[in-house]
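Ticket #279: bound-state structure for magnesium ion.
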Amino acid sequence: MQTPQPFETAVMFWAGRDPAQTLAELTALGIHSGQLGIPGDLDLSCAPQWRDALRAANFRVFTVFAAYSGESYADIPTVQQTVGFIPRATRDERERRTMAVSDFATTISALGIATHIGFVPESPTDADYLAVRDMVRRICDYAAARQQTFALETGQEPANVLLAFLNDVDRPNLGINFDPANMILYGTGDPIEALGVLATHVISVHCKDGDWPERGRPGALGKETALGAGSVGVGRFLDKLRDIGYKGALSIERESSDPARRMKDIRAAIALLATLKPV
Ligand code: MG
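RESOLUTION: The complex was predicted; output attached.
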């Protein structure tokens, strides 16, 4: 059974190394569930190996995240040009890849798939908007046939734009993976307010923190920080999740390029969440 306990502490982690070793590092921290990211260049024939390692470690994966080859998060213009479903040249190949990630999720019995689809254009008559909307519909239908949800990572557009897009796609298995830090890193808006707007669509959340972009540097992203050290306000984030009736897991996400630093920050985040969660 993959369903999370309400507010269960989990971790967002990546495939690419030995599955058993990766899971051993997480279980040593007291973590037994999470979201598995699939790098764009990963050979997906490793799915049965992951299934077996997850069973052996008694570790549950709720969501399988798709990333794509050629993506870069260097700054906002680069994100617009390279991330998700927006770049035209890679659209078809990324649609096929997302469906293949859905097959991977089936093999490991995950509840759903998720991805950053990139910056959704604001105008619903824009050709890219229509193409991306139709692509999201096809992926939702593919996932639904496998009893999976499809979650869009938040942060790159304001909550009202994302809400209008969700309504336009109009698929019951479409939802949101809410990342409060992304709203800050992209300078999109107050994440707690956005969480209220998107409330009924939130399937899962990332516990990530960060600071706003520096003023006077157009196009720059803010900086990710350890959980509790940035501008999110983890206490008010959890309070708001309780207010909206959220019942899912709290997946800690930390993307430091230094693996030792990453593990240290994840350990501290686990301790922080333990002090803030309801008893
Ligand atoms: Mg995230």
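RESOLUTION NOTES: The longest helix spans residues 127-144.
TICKET STATUS: resolved
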